[in-house]
Amino acid sequence: MSSSFGKNIVVTIFGESHGNSIGVVIDGLPIGEKIDLEKLNEFMSRRAPGKNKYGTKRKERDLPKFIAGVQDGKIVANTICAVIENSDQRSSDYEQFKDTPRPSHADYVAYMKYGKDFDMRGSGSFSGRLTAPLCIAGGIAKQILEKKGIEVQSHINRVGGISDISLDYANPDMESLKECVKKEIPVVSESAEEEIKNLINRMRDEENSVGAEIECFATGLPVGLGEPNYDSFDAVLAKLIFSIPAVRGFSFGSGFDAVSMTGKEHNDEYVLDGGVKTNTNNAGGVVGGITNGMPIVFRTAIKPTASIGLSQRSFSISESVEKDLEIKGRHDPCIGIRILPVIESMCALAILDFMEY
What Cα–Cα distance (Å) separates residue 18 from each residue in 15, 75, 117, 306, 343? Predict the structure, then answer.
């Protein structure tokens, strides 16, 4: 089981959803780099559970505690380590799933692969709870990139059938994105925000859930990050994004919309406007696996929360008989509301890992 990724910046996460703590070890960050801890805590709070009525009612502050490699907010060693203490677990909510696996969860495959002693409380190592330490690493990476003029921002592009306004892929409004993440529903459009709130409230009342699509942008990148074929920028980022629990799809630039376009419509023609640029950005900032200096643009599809209160069909592992299952507990009616900082973290870490500093 691998819990590490990266070549130059190596990130390792550890812990379980209902263990005493979760955390991250990061190797390769530049020594002497200052971390704005207040800014990092603000970034972490965007992902933290229990922050508003549209997410899970589990409450965790998710404040990182650095136990190695950081002194007075400065990186002082090649390896740094931070932990987050878990404080609001309800492990009793998960007892029945040891024998009756939840649909669309890892319960069954984890039992078959690792056996009955593997800790699956709160989904264990498969839990979205493990994205909190990823945001420690990603929050630091974002700060380092910002000092180099590189910004990473995102918004909810769609929840169910409700869409946010479209942004210009060649010249995205990063200021609007910075403001929208302060909202309870991180969309640019105020009307879309109200519609999504109503939809999520209805899903909660019906004990159901709904999916989302996240659109992420990165600006200020140089030309030349990535290599052809298997170390391409888009391939590396895609691997990291697909490692996030609940991700069901990923596309760069125009993505699947390219299917209905002609070559003339899809090609990004070059213009000389204070430097080499393209007039459109259907490629999403990557050509031949290498960044071309235009904004990175990608979309991520997030599935509906698998834990719902409605009755579903399952089976008893011990008895080998079918059973009806109703899932109780505290769950997000839409995971996409809190997943934006996780996606931004993976993007920032991928960029930083490709860069030389």
Answer: 8, 29, 14, 18, 23
285 annotated as ligand-binding:
no
Q: C-alpha dihedral over 218, 76, 5, 131, to 10 degrees?
A: -70
Residue 15: the pLDDT is 86
Query: Measuring CA to CA, which residue among 241, 243, 268 is closest to residue 253?
Result: 268
**CA separation (Å) from 87 to 17, 61, 100, 298?**
11, 9, 26, 35
Q: How far is CA 43 from the centre of its chain?
A: 13
Do the annotations mark residue 305 as ligand-binding?
yes
Work out the angle at residue 113's Cα, subtended by the Cα atoms of residues 23 and 209, and round it to the nearest 5 degrees: 65
The string of pLDDT tens digits covering residues 3-35 is 899 999 999 999 887 677 899 999 999 999 999
Residue 283 pLDDT: 97
* CATH number for the domain harbouring residue 45: 3.60.150.10
303 labelled as ligand-binding? yes
Enter the pTM of the model: 0.92
pLDDT of residue 123: 66
Distance, C-alpha 13 to centroid of its chain = 14
| DSSP H or E stretch at residue 40 | helix 37-47
Where in the sequence is the domain holding 309, given as residue range(s)?
A: 4-354
The answer to the question of whether 129 is labelled as a binding residue is: no
Per-residue model confidence (pLDDT) at position 100: 86
Residue 48: the pLDDT is 78
Total of domains in the chain: 1
Q: Does residue 90 have a known ligand-binding role?
A: no
